[in-house]
Amino acid sequence: MDWNDTPEQAAFREEVRQYVQSALPQYYKDQIANRHTQENPEAGWQFDMMHGSDSAKAAAHQWMEALNARGWSAPSFPASFGGAGLSTIEQFILKQELARVDAPEVGGAHLMQIGPTLLVHGTEEQKQRFLPPTLAGEILWAQGFSEPGAGSDLASLQCRAVRDGDEYVINGQKLWTSAGHMSNWIFGLFRTDPDAPKHRGITFLMLDARTPGVSVRPIISMGWHHATNETFYEDVRVPASQVVGEVNRGWYVGMTLLDFERSGIAGAVQQQQLLHDLVSKAQSGTTPSRVGLMRGEIAERAIEVEMNSNLSLRIASMQSRGLIPNYEASMGKAYSSELTQRISRTGTKTFGLYGGLWAGNEPYAPLGASHTRTYVSSVVGTIAGGSSEIQRNIIATRGLGLPRG
After folding, report:
1. CA–CA separation, 321 and 2 (whole Å)
2. Which residue has the higher pLDDT, 305 or 33?
3. Which fold has domain 262-399?
4. Exposed, middle or buried by CB within 10 Å (0-12, 13-18, 19+), for 49?
5. Hey, what's the torsion of the CAs at 294, 295, 300, 301, to 10 degrees?
6. Which of 54, 172, 177, 322 shows its CA 20 to 30 Å from the CA of 257?
């Protein structure tokens, strides 16, 4: 395998670097420069659009317009829907370069899930109605999948949607609705036939989060962050025209979406940056460290980061050949989420007792306590989007051909 860019890929990479450098608003450049001391590390483009200050909202709009001018908010979309129609490798390069400078991705947390899903399963009317305003930042999505009794076993979901004329009436509860407090639309899976086998009788619906009967309540993480929510539905009426795909066949629409979710390829670059910051801080001598004692463990993390980069390249290579990553995406997801925890744990150990400082503005906290904060917040990474246990089952059965049970 040749890891080097072709001349065409190298030219595109340079184009991305120059454009990002010139177009990224100063507001975000300042945030990136001070990323280790931010009071709200989970604030991002979507937060800025919905809850940010006037300057944050202005920067979010400016950056969205800059990326949309190139079709880079949704690089995989065809140009007719506001995308750039980039090849898989070009998308990979774009994500790499955005992640390398920590530039925010626009479109909201779930653009690259609901967008491709609508392109595959949506009607022409749905594509025309929902894709343009999503790219314009007018629609920001949350995902309504998990429930109190249906997480990893998602097909056990019980939140009901009952047909009533030209509408569905939804009653029930969803849990772990990430970005629900920063979104104005929700897509989700709902039980429409309680008598069917559990993988049948499920329908994929889109609904306005401001519809009467929808309530979103915060879940505060053990890191004291508000990233996710519980969502309640009380006689929520949704037009039947907002069903995506076939009624009672929503499980398969949802699995298409999760294939897109598990094929993320920017994580390895972010991990490289996390490790680079750790080594640079330890070598600077500004905070006492045990870098000598930790040298071997840091080297292990560096090797693992390169391995994760190659897992990402494998997924990109498969997609560029028209293949759909399945167990390969599960390998990348499980390995990457667990590696982030290991890097953060190594970071806190490297600085000894200083690694236990929590406040980002604490003068003795190394890197604004970023490794401590990341370690606590990364616990959810091995659960969200399909737990590591589920990913290992997929790898075992579909990758290795092992029997179930």
Report:
1. 16
2. 305
3. Butyryl-CoA Dehydrogenase, subunit A; domain 3 (1.20.140)
4. buried
5. 70
6. 172
**CA nearest neighbour of 343 among 309, 370, 312:** 370
For CATH 2.40.110.10, the residue range(s) in the chain are 141-248
Give the three-state DSSP class for 286: coil
Question: What pairs with residue 190 in β-bridges?
Answer: 203
Predicted local confidence at residue 202, as pLDDT: 97
Contact between residue 187 and residue 156 where contact means Cβ atoms under 8 Å apart? no
What average pLDDT does range 223-240 have in this prediction? 92
Residue type, 190: F
The residue-averaged pLDDT of 149-163 equals 90
Does the pLDDT of residue 140 top 80, yes or no? Answer: yes
Query: Which among 346, 313, 227 is positioned nearest to 3, based on CA atoms?
Result: 313
Second-level CATH architecture of 7-106: Orthogonal Bundle (1.10)
- Considering the chain, tell me which residue range(s) the CATH 1.10.540 domain(s) occupy: 7-106
Q: List the structure tokens of 187.
A: 């897509």
Q: Using CA atoms, how far apart are residues 134 and 313, in angstroms rounded to an integer?
A: 28
Question: What is the model's pLDDT at position 113?
Answer: 85
Q: What is residue 43's predicted lDDT score, i.e. its pLDDT? A: 66
SS3 326: coil
Can you tell me the distance from the alpha carbon of 233 to that of 17, in angstroms, rounded to the nearest whole number?
45
Active-site residue set: 261
Q: Please report, for residues 1, 327, 393, the alpha-carbon distance to residue 401 in angstroms, rounded to integers and kept in the order given.
A: 26, 11, 10
Indicate whether 177 pLDDT > 70.
yes
Within 10 A of 339 (CB to CB), how many other CB atoms are there?
Answer: 23
Q: 141-248: which CATH topology?
A: Butyryl-CoA Dehydrogenase, subunit A; domain 2 (2.40.110)
pTM here is: 0.85
Is the pLDDT at 264 greater than 60, yes or no? Answer: no
